[in-house]
Amino acid sequence: MEQRQVGRSGLWVSRTALGTMTWGKDTGEEDAGHQLTAFVDAGGTLVDTADIYTGGQSERILGRLLGAAVRREDVVVATKTGHTPEGYRAVDASRRHLLASLDASLRRLQTDYVDLWQLHVFDAATPPEESLAAMEEAVAAGKARYVGTGDLKAWQFATLATWQRALPGRVPLVSAGTEYSLLNRGADHALRPAAAAAGAHLIAWSPLGRGVLSGQYRDGVPPRSRAALAHMAPYVEPYLDGRSRRVVESVCTAAEGLGVPPLAVALSWAREQRGVAAAVVGPRTPEQLEQILRVERVELPPEIRSALDDATDDGP
Length: 316
What we know:
Order of helices and strands: EEEHEHEHEHEHEHEHHHEHH
Shape: globular
Low-confidence stretches: none
Mean pLDDT: 95
């Protein structure tokens, strides 16, 4: 699997990343182990989690698998912080919370450090210099190798990145996480240029449009799909509208012409966009991951990429 540099840093990651948001709920530990082993065997390195995924179970499962199923040094572990669902406010990027949450993540992950520590959300109530100072402290202590952001708006990312670049020697933000696919190209018009200006790259999550770009919903909702699950249906339903159906048909037409599954077209498009370091897939089963790994080498011809660009660009 191709490895890519993240921003202007020394961090390199696989261009396809394994997302673990479902681990501990829709994906059991045994299946998670099969996924991780298959992913690393295929050359994958970047594994993405967060302190809030399934109440910390995602990190716990990954921690038990590191060293048991795969070697820790073969995996680039990325986690996130900032959400406080059990707290008195929804987000908290204070030094107190960030450093405490990192220590808790390290305990769950059973590791001394994370490779990429990401600020999951923007906290308007905490001065940005305080949040960034906590991230600097984590790097200085060896608990985090690199830092980035998880899901911030372009101006929020630009604010933090500019602060870090204001004085020499500060630890730069090397990545910006965002949802990005043929069904959601919002990052094109603000975040992607902001990241490029700061020397950072995107970590694009949900490149398959929350599973819709696989084409599985063309004839309704399959019984075992995400949209059929009560807790996941609200996540998928926004992409089951008329516009999304038209995009899916364009993807399926391209896939038929190339003789590949629709997911190969959608994943290749997102992964090959300029400024994208990695596309994060979130398979619930080992079989779904196998389908993704089988099309890892698919590259879109320029004319098909251009046609998809034209069919999905809604402008700024």
